[in-house]
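Hi R.,

Here's the chain you asked about this morning:
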Amino acid sequence: NAARYLLVKGQQDCLADAGGVLAVVDSPVEEALEAMGGTGDTLTGLVSLLIDSGMDIQSAAVAAMRANRLAGALARPTPASQIGEVIRHLPVALRKVAAEGSAPGCGKEFT
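And here is the predicted structure, written out as tokens:
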């Protein structure tokens, strides 16, 4: 029972399957997020939420990667920031990603 997809969070967030990399999200860049505990948890929660809402896995992963990074940018983190500061910006980030109308990198509609 191997997973069909792999989502890797880092300097670049990547979604891959057995065939290779499907999507890369690398902006916005907030260096302070790299060492902040909890950003992977928020990403996992966003993907789960979007899949539960009816979005296909690939679209949900790309939209979540974009929203997670955008929420981080909106929080304007410093090395002393906590994940709660990012979480407060998730609703706005999700609305912005939804308003863009699609999840670039996967060709699927984000509704």
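One quick note: Residues 103-111 have pLDDT under 50 and may be disordered.

Cheers,
M.
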